[in-house]
Amino acid sequence: MANDLNTRLQEKVAIITGAGSGIGKATAINFANHGAKLILNDINKKRLNELLKEIHNSEDHIIVEGDISKEETANQLSEMAIEKHGKIDILINNAGIHYIEDITDVTPDDFDRCVSINLKSMYLCARAVIPHMVKQEKGSIVNLGSISSFVGQEMMGKSTFLYNITKAGAVQMAKSLATRYAAEGIRVNAVCPGATKTYQITEEHTQGIVSLEDFWDGAGEAQPMLRAADPSEIANAILFLASDESSFVTGTSLAVDGGYLAR
Ligand SMILES: NC(=O)c1ccc[n+]([C@@H]2O[C@H](COP(=O)([O-])OP(=O)(O)OC[C@H]3O[C@@H](n4cnc5c(N)ncnc54)[C@H](O)[C@@H]3O)[C@@H](O)[C@H]2O)c1
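Above: the input record for the complex with nicotinamide-adenine-dinucleotide. Below: its predicted structure, written as tokens.
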């Protein structure tokens, strides 16, 4: 499906954070296939350059390397969109990191880093684009939540509480911005994936407790569909909420989790 040329985002200008891998990359490829012009951020320039080699109409897109938890990076994304295209239709707040550690082992620095990358980045990017969307009387923002937005979770015997609270914040931010800006034409929603095979979990997280392959097998089996998602399956849900097809949908959280939250 991702290779079919289509027009669901024709002439739309979209910012995607954390576009270098996983769900962000699949979203970038999907959006480009549907005619969007993209401003693509990641902290990893190599990944962005690789993405440009794979994406449809690569000359239409701009890459902005930088840490999205920094105000200057968030501002730069919206400035580039306005400078090049004169508008911002879509913001996908996707960049994020996982964190697996019990509260007693989380340092205040860890806490600040995870909250900054996962949640403060969403605030900074939304703050930068909303004035333009208000002027346009139109815009769509999608925050990446998670099944962890809604439930307590442990992995490999340790809590994921720090990650979970940032993902709960992503959902709450979508609701709060949705109600505030609904009358001004801005829609804000969250997509909440279940386990999706990406670089989100690395050997740094599994620390030799299990192999990465076993980790993903286990995470997949915890979902009623008995498998992990492919990033393109999450990207399709993001495409729906970003596009005009969801014109009466705002403040909602769309679980894309193989049935995990239905239990
Ligand atoms: N993979 C899953 O199972 C899963 C489940 C639920 C939610 N999510 C969410 O989906 C989103 C995308 O994650 P993914 O699974 O594709 O992971 P990923 O690690 O494959 O991709 C995340 C990208 O964000 C980039 N990034 C990290 N820190 C950054 C920073 N400070 N500034 C800019 N870019 C930065 C990384 O370089 C990477 O390219 C995240 O918000 C994640 O929490 C993932």
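Notes for the reader.
Strands lie at 13-16, 37-42, 62-65, 90-93, 139-144, 154-155, 158-159, 186-193, 253-256.
DSSP finds eight helices and nine strands in the chain.
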